[in-house]
Design brief:
Elements lengths: L2 E3 L5 E3 L3 E2 L7 E5 L4 E7 L15 E7 L5 E7 L2 H14 L5 E5 L5 E7 L2 E2 L3 H11 L15 E5 L2 E6 L6 E3 L5 E3 L3 E4 L2 H4 L3 H14 L20
Antiparallel strand pairs: 1-2, 3-4, 4-5, 5-9, 6-7, 8-9, 10-13, 11-12, 12-15, 13-14
Length: about 230
């Protein structure tokens, strides 16, 4: 790959084209192979469970009270980052392969096929969300929008679906190249109606189950009995 640290501890490459760095990785494009390598900084990482600001963020749902929930972004551990890459790939996001470590052990390397710019952000975002079998619940009263999808017998939250994370694949299909991922707590989906519905709907999508039909408020009330 020809990637190395210079005297100022900055990454550069004699073989690959360096792209704009994100919050958690340093991307380099291989124009001949039509792939992008993403390098995640492991320097100073003591173990898999140590939060590191340079590994990006993870999403957690915090219960502030009986009726108040908050979506919080916290520093990710290496385990969080590995889990995110694997889960988003397996859910149907942009294909991502974890290549391994750099020769010096300072960087974890992941690889993705080249992606193309989105055409219509709003529509492409909708299609990309559908591709991972996610639903975006309405009227959550949360501090940020989330999607919910089902994978590996678990409900997951996804957010940060901004215009930098929605692109198109080589096949010209809208895809999610990156996002923030976290587990939807069972304590929330077990008692909060919108979370329960989102879990059930996304699970039905993933498992190809019949669409769940719910009665609207007052639908089964007989006016003559009022």
């Amino acid at each position: 790959m020809g990637v190395h640290l210079d005297a100022d501890q900055m990454l550069s490459s004699s073989e690959l084209r360096q792209l704009k760095s994100g919050a958690e990785a340093y991307p380099f494009a291989d124009d001949e192979a039509k792939v992008v390598y993403k390098l995640f900084n492991l320097r100073g990482t003591e173990n898999l469970e140590t939060p590191q600001g340079w590994l990006g963020k993870r999403v957690i749902m915090v219960e502030r009270g009986d009726d108040e929930l908050e979506v919080v972004l916290s520093e990710a551990t290496l385990t969080d980052t590995l889990e995110k890459l694997i889960i988003l790939n397996d859910a149907g996001g942009h294909p991502t392969e974890i290549v391994g470590l750099s020769d010096d052990g300072n960087f974890m390397i992941a690889k993705q096929p080249f992606a193309l710019p989105y055409v219509d952000f709003k529509n492409d975002r909708r299609i990309a969300v559908e591709a991972i079998k996610a639903v975006i619940p309405s009227f959550t009263r949360l501090n940020r929008e989330i999607g919910v999808f089902w994978l590996r017998d678990q409900a997951w939250m996804i957010c940060d679906l901004h215009n930098g994370n929605i692109m198109r694949s080589r096949e010209n299909k809208p895809t999610i190249i990156d996002a923030l991922i976290g587990r939807l707590p069972a304590s929330v989906s077990g008692k909060v109606p919108w979370a329960r519905d989102a879990l059930e709907d996304s699970r039905a999508l993933r498992l190809n189950l019949p669409k769940i039909v719910r009665k609207s408020f007052g639908e089964d009330v007989d006016d003559d009995e009022l």
